[in-house]
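It is worth pausing here to work through a concrete case rather than discussing structure prediction in the abstract. The textbook approach is simple: state the sequence, then state the predicted structure, then interpret. We follow exactly that order.
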Amino acid sequence: MSRKVLITAKAHPYLTDQLQANGYEVLYQPSISYDEVAATIKDCTGLIVTTRIRVDKHVIDQARQLQWIGRLGSGMELIDVPYAESKGIHCVSSPEGNRDAVGEQAVGMLLCLRHNILKSNLELRAGIWERDGNRAFELGGKTIGIIGYGNTGSTLARKLKGFDMKILAYDKYKKGFGDADVTETTLEGIFSEADIVSLHLPLTDETLHIANEAFFNSFSRPLVFMNTARGKLVNNHDLIKALQNGNVVGACLDVLENEKLGSYSAEDKEQLDFFLKASNVVVTPHIAGYSHEASVKMAKVVLEKLNII
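Step two, the predicted structure:
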């Protein structure tokens, strides 16, 4: 039987080298379309994906020889895992590979926002030397609430330990993780105490638009909001309203509800324009987990979980 692996996104050469060294024929097609995947996968035993291609029942039904699916990164919402597993296809992801990159960027974005690094830099490029309007708000003494305490949530907590902050964490599906540095709490506890909140959740039917008007209205004080997880966790309309009414005093967004700029509606364009023009919002194009080091580590984790190396 053929041992072919289809790779549907950009990947570090380490991945292809290791697969070839272990006897696989690699079809490296980082620009492949959904329809092309369905046509190509018929005789593949392995599939490597990121966030580009939806692996639904139609694709899986074409993959009659498929034995495994490897996800570079975290989040399996684009893969119909239950259906794949019902067909005997083993599915793995690699959040361990990019959790440090996400944790570092979250800290960087928070510092950038609260120390007015981006704002003052853009002003200076326009010939404006402004000090008083760019006074920082220090992180020390503040309380951050981390919602979701898996790989990235726990890594962010670890990265923040040196900032003299109170770190609260809540995870609906995990208990007993509190320690000397992190206080395990409830969602209500975060609403009551947090100055800053950071989302680290997968996208599911349960978490879709979890950050909505009711969410932003639940905090007892003006909030700094952070999302480096999935864009659809946030209702953009409600976040913009919260920024306008002062319930949210700043936002760090590495992900957006719609990340395909070419498909933007008039409303999508208006919302992105608001974020980009707001002096209290820092936006990046879903790069938090996209470091050079993570590209190697994610590949290694996937291959180890699949017992290929």
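Step three, interpretation. The mean pLDDT is 97. The first strand starts at residue 4 and ends at 7.
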